[in-house]
Amino acid sequence: MSKPTLLFVDDEERILRSLTPMFRADYRVLSTTDPSRALAWLRDDKVHVIVSDQRMPTMLGAELLRQAREISPATMRLLLTGYSDLEAAMAAVNDGEIYRYVSKPWNMQELRQTVGQAAQIGLRLAEAYQYVTTTPAAQPINILVIEGDDAGAGNTIRDIVGQGCDMECKLHWAHNLEQAMELLMQKDIGVVITDLHINDQDASATVKALKRYRPHVVTVVVTRFRDNNTLIDLINQGQIYRFLPKPISRGLLSRSVQSAMQHHRLLRDSPQIAARHAVEPVAETPQRRLPAQLSGFINRLRGGLSQANG
Amino acid sequence: MSVAVTIASLTIPVSPISPHALVEDVGEYFLAPENEQLLSLPVVDDGRPVGVISRYQMMNVFLKRYGRELHGRKEIATLMNRNPVLIPVDQSMEDASRYVTGNMRFPITEDFVIVRDGRYAGVGVVMDLLKAMEQQLSSRSQQLARAYRELKSSQSHLVQSEKMASLGQMVAGVAHEINTPLGYVRNNVELFLERQRLQAATLDGYTLLLHMMESADSSEAGIALQLDEVRQLHADLGGGDETESLLDDTLYGIGQIADLVSSLKDFSRVDQAMSDDIDINDCLETTLKIAHNTLKHRVQVVKKYGVLPALRCMPSKLNQVFLNLITNAAQAIEQQGTILLRTYVENARAHIVVEDNGKGMPPEVMAKVFDPFFTTKPVGQGTGLGLAIAYQIIQEHGGDIRVASRVGQGTRFVVRLPLPGASDDALAVAS
Ligand SMILES: Nc1ncnc2c1ncn2[C@@H]1O[C@H](COP(=O)(O)OP(=O)(O)O)[C@@H](O)[C@H]1O
Ligand SMILES: [Mg+2]
Q1: Going from the N-terminus, what domains does chain A have, and what CATH number goes with each?
Q2: Which region among A77-81, A174-178, A238-242 has the lowest average model confidence (pLDDT)?
Q3: pTM of the predicted model, to two decimals?
Q4: Is B276 exposed, middle or buried (0-12, 13-18, 19+ CB in 10 A)?
Q5: Which among B181, B182, B297 is the nearest to A57, CB-wise?
Q6: B190 and chain A: CB distance < 8 Å anywhere?
Q7: Whose CA is nearest to atom 1 of ligand 1?
Q8: How high is the ipTM of this complex?
Q9: Is residue B381 packed enough to be buried (19+ CB in 10 Å), middle (13-18) or exposed (0-12)?
Q10: From the CB of B387, is ligand 1 less than 6 Å away?
Q11: Contact with chain B for residue A17, Cβ under 8 A
């Protein structure tokens, strides 16, 4: 088999010169400082992985990756950036739908490994995407909304999502994580809409575990919480599909939920594609052990109690 | 807060005299020890004050020739002042003193009469009233001084926090900017290390091969095997012709990091001290490096630096001013634009001009830009303190700062600072 193709985009040539020798032995390496050149390659060539800088003079990385998604959906998308602004990370999730957010300076071995995994997945995807068929929605999609005591937000979500649902989806409500986990085990949930703080519980570990063991479940995070590192972790370890700020923008939420359902359908119908959301393992240290409740949940997910019913 | 102090606290319970009392008897009352400190005695009829008779008036009578003989047996009502100053007992000290000072005749020869519901309640001494007022004033002015001190310290707090906020943003920007050179420097070093290990292994392979060839008891096949091994190692090493350019890049990156770090250090110079030999053009350069992250790709900076003599100033504070002017200019530029930095000397002053071709502002905004907390920016972007603080800093330096702007065309800020040795007169003439 021919070597997979990597495409690096960064306005600093020295970054490109440094990355190229690192991968040349095992991959075909393309690199450019010019995003429009990169788009041309994506159009004309088969690219398995694109790794882009965020801040570039002519185009932001998140925007480049958004266009890459349209031109070449099978290509795996990574952002490699030295800046840690929340706006950029949000755009990278919501527009770029990236596989990994890697911070500069990076560790060479780790980057080699991350890009290597992406390339493996990219190779398989190139085929999978050829056979993508969109089946008409047979059954309504189960949407789980996890909201704490924020009644206002709950109502808005009920309003917006409920309206668009019709025959297409069915809403389920959880007001704490226990209820959420129970529903996740019992119903065949396709899309999760959740805040990061449910009352005083932190939902991120649950979100990450869910993606790890149920890759076809698509998560939309709606939160007031604004922390860049948390978001980066949610990308790399939780592959969240959307990250939306509160107060909720109606248009944004309704569009996001629509495409989340579509994406869930794609992942359900073509399980190979779910591989593109492989998550980075969460480092578990003695100080950061999982609460019993969560590890119970993980065990049940692992056990694959698959007698889920609609 | 304290309740208003009333006149009640000053009331002296003086026994009043009747209007029918004889003048000579009243003279005796004035000598009584309890009335020693009074200027006048109240005259009360049926509980209502009808007048006051003053020591001064009595003396006038008694000192006249035959005064006592002529007037002594008359009723006091004939001599008294029938329009005494009356003050209600519940009136506040302030109102009372305002009224008293407005209606008393000077020099002061009488006390005032205190009434409750129009009936006699006692006497008040003008001096006591003034003393009480003075005390109140001094405690007020102490409060004022305290409030002033607090305000001042909270203001310097504000100055500090604005500085920290804008500096914080900049430091974050610079820190991130460092990440790019750091990224390739680190990666290159890791590449070298990896290569170094490979080279060492290759060298070991060659050494072993050499030994085998020199030693008598090695087999042909063994040597051939080792030869293959060495060939493979060598191939893995690759050409290695780019090592030098990677080394160059690495050194370049380290230089960039050092530059950024030193500009941060220059900029933040925490010492607030006055320095004698500051080159304003250097200050602008340092500030530009710090602001680079906000500007790059979007804003072109045109510099027209003139020759400026060294100034005596607080560079860290001036940097704060320039940073704010430049950030404001960059924020006013919506897409792409230009910032012009110009310095020159005119009329014994250094002029520093920061001009942008951004969105400008209408007159009503321009009128308020130096007001504390005035901002048109969303929360998180603007504190509204930048220009207020800039104004103050420039004033501390004996200079001034002015603004001109037109909507849709741009904005110009001009800072003027006195040159060393320029006397106030020269500056006054110049302006
Ligand atoms: N160069 C400029 N162009 C247009 N408007 C400006 C400029 N500089 C300042 N302003 C206006 O003055 C306001 C006050 O500025 P400043 O005191 O620095 O506070 P802030 O930048 O935090 O808003 C700004 O919000 C903006 O409306
Ligand atoms: Mg400002």
Answers
A1: 5-131 (3.40.50.2300), 141-303 (3.40.50.2300)
A2: A174-178
A3: 0.67
A4: exposed
A5: B297
A6: yes
A7: B329
A8: 0.84
A9: exposed
A10: yes
A11: yes
